[in-house]
Please model this.
Amino acid sequence: MRRLISFSVLALSLTACASHKPIVDTKGVNMALYERDLAECTEYAEQVESGEKVAKSAAVGAAVGAAIGAVFGNAGDGAATGAIDGGTHGGLDADREKAAVVKRCLRGRGYRVLN
Model:
């Protein structure tokens, strides 16, 4: 069970590293400056604590899953399922937060972000 949880948390952590490149209206935009701004904004987004979010969500999910599993006679399976579900949600939330940081940063620099 520990291996399953560790593997799931690792997979979710790697998923959270996905690209946050937004769609920007580039008409009249200096693309060299845009690429530099995008790189800087992406660096800011990396400050979002994705690993911590995944771990906390997995722990909460495991606790809730264990409680539900205990009612049905298998707390271990419930904890594993809850950890995977919680970790998934934590990873997705962190990824969305990173994408939002990049978009807000670019908008603050005057770009028209379309998504």
Observations:
- Residues 38 and 106 are 7 Å apart (CA to CA).
- The chain has a mean pLDDT of 81.
- The chain has one domain: 2-108.
